[in-house]
Design goal:
This protein is mainly beta and 136 residues long. The protein has a domain of 94 residues: Nucleic acid-binding proteins (OB fold (Dihydrolipoamide Acetyltransferase, E2P), Beta Barrel), CATH 2.40.50. It is 7% helix and 43% strand. It has a 5-stranded mixed beta barrel with strand order 1-2-3-5-4. The N and C termini lie far apart (90 Å).
Length: 136
């Protein structure tokens, strides 16, 4: 069974791109979800395998707000003091940062001097067939 979650919070540790044993690149980051109770800190690991999710994670700085959607993996482990804790990992399908990516700046083309305009006569040439009297 797979559980999908949507988590909103801030990036706690910067994202790092790593390579698996099979040679595939992935990105790992740690985020801290927004919580009502400030005394309880939860940290979630975020793993991104898609190129778009990795690019979004890598451009964010520490403490920037983001939302992560993906599959959830929960495991227990023994902490240093012997207490059992929960390890939370999200395999990110989509990442939505609060800050929009910067717009690409296109270089402005060099200004070329405009050619002088030529005068064009748009009036028809006078001819005898156009000099009729209009009866009204």
């Amino acid at each position: 069974m797979t559980v999908h979650v949507l988590i909103t919070g801030s990036l706690f540790r910067p994202a790092e791109q790593e390579t698996s044993q099979s040679g595939k690149r992935y990105t790992v980051a740690t985020m801290k979800p927004a919580s009502v109770d400030a005394s309880n800190s939860e940290f979630w690991s975020v793993l991104a395998f898609s190129d778009t999710a990795q690019a979004e994670l890598l451009r964010l700085d520490v403490n920037e707000k983001l939302s992560v959607q993906g599959g959830l993996k929960l495991e227990t482990y023994a902490a240093g003091n012997g207490e059992t804790r929960i390890s939370r990992t999200v395999f990110a399908d989509a990442i939505l940062p609060l800050r929009a990516p910067p717009k690409e700046k296109k270089p402005k083309p060099a200004a070329t001097p405009a050619a002088p305009l030529e005068r064009v006569n748009i009036m028809p040439a006078t001819s005898s067939d156009l000099d009729d009297d209009i009866p009204f």
